[in-house]
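Friendly challenge for the regulars: who can give me the structure tokens for this chain first? No prize, just bragging rights.
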Amino acid sequence: MSHIQISHHAARRFEQRGIPTMLIEQIVARHDQDHEIGDDCRALRLSCDAIVELAVEQGSAQLAERLTNLTVIWSDRNNQVVTAFRNGRAQKSRRYRGRV
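First reply, four minutes later:
Bragging rights claimed.
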């Protein structure tokens, strides 16, 4: 897997939220949902079908659980991950409701 650029803010958030960098790399490399959210940023996600396909490919049901409802915010301007978060309630977070 290729190395991706991660902002200092994102690195802190991953640690606070218990999100391993490996999961972020999987989403950046294999996302199939890509939504513009403004300020040259995009919300990247894996669909349920893509998550199942990846989990079967790697033989890990735990991987599927960990990737479910995980969103990565990517900056096109800086070519780096800005942050990532889990969408706890549904497929739309409070901040990006209507955009993701």
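Residues 90-94 have pLDDT under 50 and may be disordered. Residues 8-86 form one domain. Your move, everyone else.
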